[in-house]
């Protein structure tokens, strides 16, 4: 029970983190319940053709106007949010899990097996990500939908994060407290899980945030070049139709701006949340009350209590 | 303070050895341009730590003291040689055997800011060795942790049990580190410069805690230091290390009052004479001040280049003679050829120097 009470959630003191979390939460809510709202309250659906006129500008009936096929852009955006977020979260989770597993193991293991693991990570690091992604996606095209895309993205984008974990682990493995844990009779697994990995928490959190953004961007990229799943609605497929239908030339801003802005919004939210991850591995920062001197000095970029030790 | 040490002083030969090193050697291979060469960190060291006594290992930075301690703790593997615990050779190949050794021999590290994981409370840090080396139930565990905290004078233990390391001062942290070592219920403590990172005013507290553990609980201790004055203060026996070799050893009084080896004499000359300081008011302040002054002594004396070059013996493994000959005022031709065997200087005091053979 004592272990629990220092991981309990509290509202972060940092305003940037709050804004980032709020934006992210809003997108999650839209992804979860947006389609119910669109279907039952607005009476629209993402895939219905000729729901309105072609390329209508925003109105009370079509909040974000219509596409050149007469589809409702707002309904598409809401449906796309769900697809893109799911791809982002699943792809990001897979990439982060692989990055932690292979990074920490390759950093902590010595000798031949450590060298082999590092070589494996390095090979994946130099394989160009997007071409590999396109190659694999073109084989699975049409099968499995967005889930396949998410898995492929996760499996091809972990190497950079693994290198970062490896570097951190290398510096942690020779710390005195790791040696002391060994003298305390701790097993290797326990040292890794409870002494080393908790120190990586900020790096893991920020890897996850940017893997999510990266996966969303990769998915949008695949869809944009037409290598995705044609009938799913995502921010990427929206941009694909925007481009192929020449929406930019006809000035249909209500069609091309929203998906682009949404992708930018996710990136911004991730960046803002990232300001708060330092607290994850420093009980000194965690125990400060919101709005205390420590919180303020961190926001203004001043000295942390570390310097005043 | 010296008086306390004298009261509890036992003749070194009476107690049986508990932890022994026999011909212990650690050569560390070098990388990069000096590939193929080795650093002879520890070179054929014979050492016997006796039951219920404190053995001080004195030497300058880079002389191999810490490597020797890590070898004895099984934190590192020797190139050759043997470690014996209670007369039996210690097998370090299998993890199970190493763990059993950790149960007997525990290490206290130099830097209490680095040796405690800042993410864990003292409750967790101390519970791990208790669980790993014994099987107390959940209810008993808390009582044992509080008992440990109070044993190292972190009182009341109930107030310290849920503290994070950053909520403690340096001295309190080092006490917590001592408590963690004691949690395994060891019979030997290896203190790798346990006070050198601490503020002068609390060094004496920690040293007194260590002597108390010897006197009250009969623990044996290897006290590593570069401060020969504090070695005399706490230890029953002193051995002096230079460049991976032990050069002199014996009862603390004999070694510090009647040093035979030129290196020991140099170390003593670099530290203020404890008798001169203690003849005045032998208060805590004076003794602490002498420790502080002595701490900087031998290290500050050395020019970094020559110290690193001669002290580590990184010479491609061709070294045959006495490692101290380059800086020795009494160097002779024979010093370059080989190192002499230990010569007896009476009542357990020995020295390895051609001047005394």
TrEMBL record, chain A:
Membrane disposition: Multi-pass membrane protein
Pfam families recorded: BPD_transp_1
GO function terms (MF aspect): dipeptide transmembrane transporter activity
Taxonomic superkingdom: Bacteria
Region feature Disordered, mapped onto this chain: 286-309
Transmembrane segments: 85-105, 117-139, 145-164, 196-218, 254-277
Keywords from the UniProt entry: Cell membrane, Membrane, Transmembrane, Transmembrane helix, Transport
Alphabetized InterPro entries for the sequence: BP-dependent_transpt_permease, MetI-like, MetI-like_sf
Subcellular location: Cell membrane
Residues in ABC transmembrane type-1 domain copies: 81-274
Record GO cellular component, one term: plasma membrane
Family: Belongs to the binding-protein-dependent transport system permease family.
PANTHER family cross-referenced by the UniProt entry: D,D-DIPEPTIDE TRANSPORT SYSTEM PERMEASE PROTEIN DDPC-RELATED, OLIGOPEPTIDE TRANSPORT SYSTEM PERMEASE PROTEIN APPC
Name assigned to this protein: Peptide/nickel transport system permease protein
Lineage start: Bacteria, Bacillati, Actinomycetota, Actinomycetes, Kitasatosporales
Automatic annotation (TrEMBL), chain B:
Region (Disordered): 289-322
Domain of life (superkingdom): Bacteria
GO biological process: one example: peptide transport
One Gene Ontology MF term: ATP hydrolysis activity
Amino acid composition bias (Low complexity), ranges on this chain: 289-298
Coiled-coil intervals: none
Gene3D superfamilies: P-loop containing nucleotide triphosphate hydrolases
Alphabetical keyword list: ATP-binding, Nucleotide-binding, Transport
Residue ranges annotated for the ABC transporter domain, each copy included: 19-268
Keyword set includes Nucleotide-binding: yes
Name of this chain's protein: Peptide/nickel transport system ATP-binding protein
Organism: Actinacidiphila alni
């Amino acid at each position: 029970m004592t272990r629990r009470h220092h991981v309990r959630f509290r509202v972060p003191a940092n305003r940037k983190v709050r804004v980032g979390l709020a934006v992210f939460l809003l997108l999650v809510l839209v992804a979860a319940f947006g389609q119910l709202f669109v279907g039952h309250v607005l009476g629209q659906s993402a895939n219905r053709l000729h729901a309105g006129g072609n390329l209508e500008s925003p109105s009370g009936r079509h909040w974000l106007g219509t596409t050149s096929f007469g589809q409702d852009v707002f309904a598409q955006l809401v449906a796309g949010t769900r697809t893109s977020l799911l791809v982002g979260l699943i792809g990001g989770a897979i990439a982060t899990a692989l990055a932690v597993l292979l990074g920490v193991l390759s950093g902590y293991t010595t000798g031949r097996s450590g060298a082999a693991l590092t070589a494996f990570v390095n090979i994946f690091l130099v394989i160009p990500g997007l071409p590999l992604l396109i190659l694999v996606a073109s084989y699975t095209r049409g099968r499995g939908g967005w889930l396949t895309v998410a898995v492929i993205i996760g499996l091809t984008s972990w190497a950079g994060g693994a290198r970062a974990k490896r570097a951190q682990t290398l510096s942690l493995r020779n710390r005195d407290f790791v040696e002391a844990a060994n003298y305390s009779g701790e097993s290797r697994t326990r040292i890794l899980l409870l002494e080393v990995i908790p120190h990586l928490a900020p790096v893991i959190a920020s890897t996850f945030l940017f893997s999510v953004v990266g996966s969303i961007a990769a998915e949008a990229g695949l869809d944009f070049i037409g290598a995705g799943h044609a009938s799913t609605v995502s921010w990427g497929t929206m941009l694909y139709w925007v481009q192929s239908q020449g929406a930019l030339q006809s000035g249909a801003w209500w069609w091309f701006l929203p998906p682009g802005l949404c992708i930018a919004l996710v990136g911004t939210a991730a960046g803002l949340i990232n300001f708060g991850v330092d607290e994850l591995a420093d009980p000194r920062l965690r125990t400060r009350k919101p709005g205390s001197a420590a919180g303020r000095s961190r926001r203004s970029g001043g000295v942390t209590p570390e310097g005043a030790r | 303070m010296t008086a306390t040490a004298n009261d509890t002083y036992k003749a070194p030969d009476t107690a049986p050895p508990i932890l022994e090193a026999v011909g212990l050697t650690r050569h560390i291979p070098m990388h990069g341009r000096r590939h193929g060469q080795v650093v002879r960190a520890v070179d054929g060291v014979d050492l016997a730590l006796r039951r219920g006594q404190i053995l001080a290992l004195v030497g300058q930075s880079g002389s191999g003291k810490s490597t020797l301690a890590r070898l004895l703790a099984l934190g590192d593997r020797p190139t050759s040689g043997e470690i014996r615990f209670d007369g039996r050779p210690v097998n370090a190949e299998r993890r199970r055997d190493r763990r059993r050794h950790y149960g007997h021999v525990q290490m206290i590290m130099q830097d209490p800011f680095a040796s405690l994981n800042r993410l864990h409370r003292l409750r967790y840090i101390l519970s791990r060795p208790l669980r790993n080396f014994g099987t107390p139930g959940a209810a008993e565990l808390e009582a044992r942790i509080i008992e440990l905290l109070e044993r190292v004078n972190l009182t009341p233990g109930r107030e310290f049990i849920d503290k994070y390391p950053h909520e403690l001062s340096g001295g309190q942290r080092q006490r917590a580190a001592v408590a963690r070592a004691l949690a395994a219920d060891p019979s030997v403590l290896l203190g790798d410069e346990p006070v050198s990172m601490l503020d002068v005013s609390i060094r004496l507290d920690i040293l007194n805690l260590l002597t108390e553990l010897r006197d009250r609980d009969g623990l044996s201790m290897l006290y590593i230091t570069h401060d020969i004055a504090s070695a005399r203060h706490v230890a029953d026996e002193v051995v002096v290390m230079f460049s991976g070799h032990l050069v002199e050893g014996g009862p603390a009084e004999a070694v510090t009052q009647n040093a035979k080896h030129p290196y020991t004499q140099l170390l003593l000359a670099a530290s203020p004479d404890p008798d001169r300081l203690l003849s005045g008011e032998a208060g805590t302040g004076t003794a602490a001040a002498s420790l502080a002054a002595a701490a900087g002594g031998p290290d500050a004396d050395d020019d970094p280049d020559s110290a690193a070059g001669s002290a580590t013996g990184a010479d491609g493994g061709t070294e045959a003679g006495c490692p101290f000959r380059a800086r020795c005022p009494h160097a002779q031709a024979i010093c370059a050829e080989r190192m002499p065997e230990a010569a007896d200087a009476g009542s357990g005091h020995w020295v390895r120097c051609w001047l005394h053979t």
